[in-house]
Amino acid sequence: MSDRVRDLPGLFGAADLAMRVGVLVLALGALALGAVRAADSARARIGQFAILRILGSGRPELRRILLGEAVLSGGVAGVVGAVVGTVASAALAGPLSDVLGLPISVTDALPGPTWAAAALLLPAAGLAAGTLFGSREVLRRDPYLAARAHS
Questions:
Q1: What is the pLDDT of residues 15-33, one digit of tens each?
Q2: pTM of the model
Q3: Contact 130, 35 (CB under 8 A)
Q4: Which of 10, 12, 61, 96 has the fewest CB neighbours in a 10 Å radius?
Q5: What are the phi and psi torsion angles at 5 (to 5°)?
Q6: How far apart are the C-alpha atoms of 47 and 146, rounded to whole Å?
């Protein structure tokens, strides 16, 4: 179906290009939002990190913990998003086929491997990037001053 639409002239060809650009903008937005939210989360727990550093945990160890949390929660979000999107797409294939007058099978509505990989990996990548940037600022602070300020 997508090959046939892509080969159509005029508005249909532009719609395919607009969809691809829209997905790219959405992906960049997801990365940016994940980065901002993960950095905020790291800043919100600065007191806890200060105590762990006072007790002997190093910056690399805390960074690994933060990255593990980010990748795990981003991976869960990616799996949930991919499953919900795939189920919704498959459920809408029949009704859209009737409305558009085009034969759309359930297999046509399933995402390709590139789209599935993007849906699974982008949330984890956004959260991991945000964790790296947010944790740099948080873990540089003097743990004694940070613990005193947040107690």
A1: 677 878 877 887 787 778 7
A2: 0.71
A3: yes
A4: 10
A5: -65, -40
A6: 6
